[in-house]
Amino acid sequence: MDRTRRAPTECPDMPTLRAQIDDLDTQLVTLLVERATYIDRAIQLKPDAGLPARIRDRVEQVVANVRNKADSQGLDPDLTESLWRKIIDWSIDREERVLGTHKE
Questions:
Q1: Start and end of every Chorismate mutase domain (predicted)?
Q2: Does domain 12-99 have CATH number 1.20.59.10?
Q3: Annotation: binding site for substrate
Q4: What is the percent of the chain where pLDDT is above 90?
């Protein structure tokens, strides 16, 4: 099957459309893996900076940023917030396994 990137309207059938979605899913997973490497770096930097794993103000800043980006691009901000809060919670859990939990 031709794996050339196509716009949704250029997909003549379901197999072609599904292949495009599968390719996008692969890209999203790759980006999440890359994001996790930044979380790993935060784990290295936070102790010297005296920072806890969870910084509430930063969590809310990230959520506000993605909500705004989603809204400006026509994606449901509530869905985006829900997804990002899950990603953020996973990231903080990852940090806390190494750093431990303590208050800001």
A1: 8-99
A2: yes
A3: 18, 35, 46, 95
A4: 89
